[in-house]
Each structure stands twice: as C-alpha cells, then as structure tokens.
UniProtKB/TrEMBL annotation:
<dbReference type="GO" id="GO:0003676">
    <property type="term" value="F:nucleic acid binding"/>
</dbReference>
<keyword id="KW-0489">Methyltransferase</keyword>
<dbReference type="InterPro" id="IPR029063">
    <property type="entry name" value="SAM-dependent_MTases_sf"/>
</dbReference>
<dbReference type="GO" id="GO:0016279">
    <property type="term" value="F:protein-lysine N-methyltransferase activity"/>
</dbReference>
<dbReference type="InterPro" id="IPR041370">
    <property type="entry name" value="Mlase_EEF1AKMT1/ZCCHC4"/>
</dbReference>
<dbReference type="GO" id="GO:0005737">
    <property type="term" value="C:cytoplasm"/>
</dbReference>
<dbReference type="InterPro" id="IPR002052">
    <property type="entry name" value="DNA_methylase_N6_adenine_CS"/>
</dbReference>
<keyword id="KW-0808">Transferase</keyword>
<keyword id="KW-0963">Cytoplasm</keyword>
<dbReference type="GO" id="GO:0032259">
    <property type="term" value="P:methylation"/>
</dbReference>
<dbReference type="InterPro" id="IPR019369">
    <property type="entry name" value="Efm5/EEF1AKMT1"/>
</dbReference>
<dbReference type="Pfam" id="PF10237">
    <property type="entry name" value="N6-adenineMlase"/>
</dbReference>
<protein>
    <submittedName>
        <fullName>EFMT1 methyltransferase</fullName>
    </submittedName>
</protein>
C-alpha cells in the first residue's frame, strides 16, 4: 500500500520554521495583552497611528524625559503629558513613586488609562474639563503633533494654562524660534530619539534649569 502522504505538497522546513515563528510571535503578542503579566503602560502596548502623526520615543528617551519630569515636579508633584503618551507610560511604570500624572491626548485608545486620560484636541486648546484647574501642574511635558507654528501656538495656550511655571517641550529643531516666542523655552543639549527614525531633527526645550544639558 502506497504512503498516502506522498501527494501532499511539503513545505520546505525553512518556510515552515518561519511560519511557526510568525504565528508564535502573534500568539505572544495577543497573549501578552490578555495575560496578567502584561504591562499596559509599556511603550508600544498601544501601537503608533501615523495618521495621527504619532511617533513613540525610544525607551531610553522616554525614561530620560520621565526622570527629568519627576525631578522637576518635586516630591508629590503633578505632571501633565500633553500629546506625549510614551513619557506618560514611562512615568506609570515607576508606580509607587511620589507624584501624580495626567495624559492629555487626542487618541482615545489611551482612555484605557481611566481617569488620568483627558481627551485633548489642540484645535480647542482650552476646552478642558473643569476639574483641570489652571496652573495646577508642577511641570508640563508637551510634544505637539505637528511641526507648524499654528499647532505650537495652540498647544502653547494649553501648556501655559496648565503649568505653574515649568515647561518641557519636545519638537523639531526647526521650531526653535517659535518655541522661544510662544513659550520662552530654550533648546537643551539632550537629543530625544524615537523608536523609528524621523526625517526631522528633534530637540527638547525648557524654561528652567534642567538635567538635560
């Protein structure tokens, strides 16, 4: 009796291995999302949406900016992240530290973070919930979604409304003059990196003595 398996086309072992790996990765990704151990705050737990002009920072950059924010906010400080979700996620990873944080973001996928999420559209810079009091944050970290003066100017209104004084702005190097004009911030030596390389050179700007120089 002939071996029935002979007619079945065989995939090369190489293709098979690649396929298995692909499915495994997919399962792991899905599994991670449902398993207890999954860190919902890790960068990439919500994927970038380029149509919303989203680009996450590299892990190193997000950590560095989060550290700076905590130091600048001081003990029991309040930190607002405006359109800077990867810094928010890094701050949340340091749970138990003595500070509180809010995320103002257009992308409603971040509403999974509950009460700390505030829907934010830079076109309506002061359309904010009543419980978000003026000058109630020790530091505001902002990364306006677009490199345009209009976007910076409108985001600046929000920043100035929220902050008690300290501002940490991340935007393109080309925005240096506008950043100084609208927010009185100066470029730092620290160069933020993104998890994917961007065509535009990115820089950080502050209006206080920071650890980013």
């Amino acid at each position: 009796k002939m071996d029935d398996d002979d007619d079945i086309p065989q995939l090369s072992s190489h293709t098979l291995a690649a396929l298995q790996e692909f499915y495994l990765e997919q399962q792991q990704r899905e599994g991670m999302k449902t398993s207890q151990g999954f860190n919902q705050y890790s960068i990439g737990s919500i994927e970038e949406d380029w149509q919303l002009s989203q680009f996450w920072y590299s892990d190193e950059t997000a950590s560095c900016l989060a550290r700076e924010a905590v130091l600048a906010a001081g003990k029991g400080g309040r930190i607002a992240c405006v359109s800077a979700p990867s810094v928010y996620q890094k701050l949340k990873e340091q749970d138990g530290e003595d500070f509180s944080v809010c995320i103002l973001e257009y992308d409603t996928r971040f509403s999974v973070y509950g009460e700390e999420f505030i829907f934010y559209d830079y076109n309506r810079p002061l359309d904010l919930p009543e419980n978000l009091l003026p000058h109630s944050f020790d530091i505001v970290i902002a990364d306006p979604p677009y490199l345009s003066e209009e976007c910076l100017q409108k985001t600046a209104e929000t920043i100035k409304y929220l902050t008690k004084g300290k501002i940490l702005l991340c935007t393109g190097a080309v925005m240096e003059e506008q950043a100084a004009k609208h927010l009185g911030v100066k470029m730092c030596k620290f160069i933020p990196k993104h998890s994917r390389n961007l065509a535009n050179e990115f820089r950080c700007y502050v209006n206080y003595t920071s650890g980013l120089d």
